[in-house]
Structure to design on (474 residues):
């Protein structure tokens, strides 16, 4: 049985109190690893190592730090098959997705921030007889806390800019999918990352969270996960005046106008709704369609959704794998039951697939008002609702009518409309005639209950640094 150990000061170790938890393959319901279940003592140990390592790492040139990150990216690419298989087994996602999306993107994240740090310049302001320039210095030791839906992908998305800017990191991957992140320790050592600069702790967030956030030596917390956890972190960090970046839940709308390119929109709605079993914060789980297209799109979508291949994630033809865990499977099934009680009509899916593994048939529901719980709360599974609108104004109102504001997509060939509507949608990311097309230089994140701050490009480099203005009179 694989043992998933903490990685502290460049070495793998058991938890201080020797506690363990199981990691389960959600497609087979079999145990695949024993995972350290850390507590605050492990956090303190990791913080000590990070503190000892940080100043030296920060003093190295950006080129030197970039070289190490590039090497880490190369090593991840070299281990693509191994990492993709583990990601699929740990998370339940199709192996093909882990191989083409998750693991390549983990390498790209490190490569991207290695490049970015070499190109980053800071502001200078000239006055009469004086010049100001801004130094952006690393914060020190930072916590990076990530979720289970895109395990290595989102973990590296945080630690890459933190390391590039000269911080030491306490990384906390999700306890639900810890394995690929734990292997990053090997990658870091082989790439020559100095000991203690990256520390990776496993275990339940609630046990370690307080120390990860409140410890005096932690200068910032970069978190991706649920809005409920983000709220706890926010409450802990606020009185301590800590920097926080919170990437949280979404209840995104996909808006299809009557002047869309129909085939393109149909393919887009399907991708947005059901990629990664609907377990992407950016997934479009509320499909809003102009009334003139409603019946046509509904019929076509039901056909496409029902023919998605659900099953063994290791099978190359599988399009929908298992949900990540028993608890999450039960939550999603509960949401489907709630939708029925709220008066929703299940157009397809709505039930478990098979009897082993946490598979759910992709589900489309109609007949629900926007203010019901199904349309207001994040489900984070292969479940989408479909609803019609008659005017642009109504589409905007419906889209904006939840507490979330992460990522919307809209489909229209009328360019004036796309600008006009984008301006009025309350979300941090708007995709027009596309979905999840990513340029890593752009600000990434949400507004309202979906997020505080932005990741990506210079936003991330700024987050992980403290600006200091130096004014020189001459
Ligand atoms: P979660 O909030 O349960 O856990 C996320 C991480 O926080 C895990 O590592 C967990 O161990 C840790 N954690 C839990 N309690 C903690 C505490 N009290 N203090 C500190 N850390 C704690 O979220 P999840 O179920 O792993 O992920 C799914 C959620 O993540 C969904 O809501 C999804 O929308 C969101 N998400 C958001 C984005 C984004 O970019 N906005 C991206 C992916 C996922």
């Amino acid at each position: 049985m694989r043992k998933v150990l903490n990685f502290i000061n460049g070495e793998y170790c058991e938890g201080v109190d020797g506690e363990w938890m199981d990691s389960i393959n959600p497609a087979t319901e079999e145990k695949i690893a024993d995972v350290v279940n850390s507590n605050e003592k492990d956090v303190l140990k990791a913080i000590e190592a990070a503190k000892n390592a940080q100043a030296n790492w920060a003093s190295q040139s950006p080129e030197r730090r970039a070289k190490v990150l590039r090497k880490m990216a190369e090593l991840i690419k070299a281990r693509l098959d191994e990492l993709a298989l583990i990601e699929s087994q740990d998370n339940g996602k199709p192996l093909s997705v882990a191989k083409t999306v998750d693991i390549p993107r983990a390498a790209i994240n490190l490569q991207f921030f290695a490049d970015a740090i070499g190109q980053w310049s800071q502001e200078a302001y000239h006055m009469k007889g004086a010049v100001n320039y801004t130094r952006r210095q690393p914060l020190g030791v930072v916590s990076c806390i990530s979720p289970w839906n895109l395990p290595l992908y989102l973990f590296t998305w945080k630690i890459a800019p933190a390391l590039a800017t000269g911080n030491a990191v306490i990384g906390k991957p999700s306890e639900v999918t810890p394995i690929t992140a734990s292997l990053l320790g090997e990658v870091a050592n082989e790439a020559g990352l100095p000991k203690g600069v990256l520390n990776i702790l496993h275990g339940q967030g609630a046990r370690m969270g307080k120390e990860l956030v409140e410890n005096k030596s932690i200068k910032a917390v970069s978190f991706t996960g649920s809005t409920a956890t983000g709220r706890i972190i926010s409450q802990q960090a606020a009185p301590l005046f800590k920097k926080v970046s919170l990437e949280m839940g979404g209840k995104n709308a996909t808006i299809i106008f009557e002047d869309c390119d129909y085939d393109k929109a149909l393919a887009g709605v399907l991708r947005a709704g059901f990629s990664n079993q609907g377990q992407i914060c950016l997934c479009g789980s509320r499909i809003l369609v102009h009334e003139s297209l409603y019946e046509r799109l509904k019929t076509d979508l039901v056909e496409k959704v029902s023919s998605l291949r659900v099953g063994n994630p290791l099978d190359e033809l599988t399009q929908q794998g298992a949900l990540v865990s028993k608890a999450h499977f039960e939550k999603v099934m509960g949401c489907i039951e709630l939708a029925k009680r709220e008066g929703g009509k299940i157009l397809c899916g709505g039930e478990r697939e098979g009897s082993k593994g946490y598979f759910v048939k992709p589900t489309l529901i109609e007949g629900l008002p926007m203010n019901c719980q199904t349309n207001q709360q994040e489900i984070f599974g292969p479940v989408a609702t479909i609803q019609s609108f008659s005017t642009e104004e109504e589409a905007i109102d419906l889209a904006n009518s939840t507490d979330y504001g992460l990522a919307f997509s809209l489909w229209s060939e009328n360019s004036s409309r796309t600008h006009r509507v984008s301006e009025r949608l309350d979300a941090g990311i708007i995709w027009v005639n596309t979905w999840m097309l990513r340029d890593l230089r752009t600000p990434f994140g949400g507004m309202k209950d979906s997020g505080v701050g932005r990741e990506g490009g210079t936003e991330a480099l700024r987050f992980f640094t403290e600006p200091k203005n130096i004014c020189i009179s001459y």
Summary: The first strand starts at residue 2 and ends at 4.
